[in-house]
Amino acid sequence: MGPDIAASPGRWYLRWDKGEIFQVTGQDAETGEITIRTYDGDVDLLSLDQWRELRPGLADPPCDWTGPVESVDELDASASLPPGFMTAAPSARNAIKRILVAVKEPGESWSPGLAKATQIARATGAQIELFHCVDAALTVEQLAAYRGGMDEFERSQRHSWEEGLERLASKVRSHGVHATFSAPVDHPVHEGIVRQARCFHADLIVTDAHRGSNFAAWIMEEVDWELVRLSTAPLLIVRQTELYQRPLVLAALDPSDSHSKPATLNRKLLNASAVFSRALEGDLHAMHAYSVPGAVAEAASAVSASVAAELQAIDAGRAHASLDSLLMSTNIPAECRHVAPGSPADAIVRTATELKASLLVMGSVARSGVGRLFIGNTAEKVLNRLPCDLLLLKPDDFANSIADQRRGARLISTGVYF
Q1: Given this chain, do its domains 87-232+399-418 and 235-397 carry the same CATH topology?
Q2: Res 81 pLDDT > 50
Q3: Contact, 200 vs 98, CB < 8 A?
Q4: Which is nearest to 367 in space by CA: 357, 378, 375?
Q5: In terms of C-beta distances under 8 Å and separation of at least 24 residues, what long-range contacts does 20-28 make, across chains too?
């Protein structure tokens, strides 16, 4: 929800819960009742209590709006607009051109992921593709009832989903964002999303986080799990419901040589973090989680508190030096550079929590074999406790074995899937 703001006749506002915009057309001087008009032209009357409960945010007029502007005051509207719901900044344009939103439940619902994807698109000038993979199945006997065969069956399956996506796309377009949609029949769902991202040349995939009691991998939805493992495009997992309001973007970096991530991944993480912080008018921070060697930890426990503190300071100084060296070509100020001791997963979650980060940006290196059961790297361990949204990036040389050709519907015969 947005902050409490006064109703100003002539201004446009955003309903955070529905992603809909409306204009305040007047306010009764005696009762305080507020008259509003939606983009579709519907008129409604709100009491002051209803307005306070709604807590709308300021928004741009729709791009095709031709109504009166005389009543809008002369203040710089862009100065108070929620970041991402104003015209794209020149520095942010072309950094993200195509955003694929994995829609889990097409219809009227405006999910946090879709709302934030729209916000990012407005801030970067990107276009959006709303995508829902229809995982449909039928038996050989059922297929015989369709004169057009499998093509007719798949068309019938796509129809209702496409109607829901069209309604969502209309809401996105009302914010001045070019939006398309597609709902092909394919399986499994995660492969369908990865295939579409490749076909769409997506610079970013956005998905809502699993709605369970926590985000641990063993209860994580299979689709989310596989996207983390197999997506070659940057993957934004949305956990927080509030829109970005000048967010703190935290880049988790690894300047040491003790991990398997390619060194170029750090630069990729910094570039992506800078794009998001600039586009959303947020603050960019960077951190390095460092492990304390076992010998040092044992030595610290065997000496006085002052000597132990000195040893810890030496370790922290080395970590700061490594991070400063990595950030030498950036303009991230010293107060926005952080080092934290402990296991990478613990240190990252602790730092993100203490800083009240809105977005954590980190690398992910998928594993195969036994590692597939728990993936095993820091990114997957962080997911269990992370309090904010997560942007995951893979190394440039990462590839998956997912074919370009869609699989279509599942054909079931005697209980066996084909």
Answers
A1: yes
A2: no
A3: yes
A4: 375
A5: 20/110, 20/171, 20/174, 21/59, 21/62, 21/174, 21/175, 22/56, 23/61, 23/67
Contact partners, residue 156, CB within 8 Å, separation at least 6 = 146
* Fold assignment, 87-232+399-418: Rossmann fold (3.40.50)
Give yes or no for a contact between 250 and 52, defined as CB atoms under 8 angstroms apart. Answer: no
For residue 372, the number of C-alpha atoms closer than 13 Å in the C-beta half-sphere is 7
Rounded to the nearest 5°, which phi and psi values hold at 287?
A: -140, 155
**Closest of 150, 239, 234 to residue 194, by C-alpha:** 234
Q: Under CATH, what is the fold of the domain 235-397?
A: Rossmann fold (3.40.50)
Q: What is the mean pLDDT of residues 92-104?
A: 84
pTM: 0.76
d(CA 145, CA 158): 18
CA–CA–CA angle 336, 342, 345 (5° rounding): 80
- 3-state secondary structure string across 57-90: EEECCCCCCCCCCCCCCCCCHHHCCCCCCCCCCC
Alpha helices in 206-255 (DSSP H): 222-230
Q: What are phi and psi of 175, to 5 degrees?
A: -95, 15
At a CB cut-off of 8 Å and minimum separation 6, what does 327 contact? Answer: 270, 286, 337
Amino acid at 221: E
Q: Give pLDDT tens digits for 345-389.
A: 899 999 999 999 999 999 987 554 433 333 446 766 787 688 999
Say whether the peptide bond before residue 61 is cis (omega within 30 degrees of 0): no
Whether residue 277 contacts residue 366, with contact meaning beta carbons closer than 8 Å, is answered with no
215-259: pLDDT as tens digits: 444 434 678 878 888 999 999 999 998 899 999 999 999 887 545
- What residue ranges do the domains of the chain occupy? 12-79, 87-232+399-418, 235-397
Helix (H) or strand (E) holding 121: helix 112-124
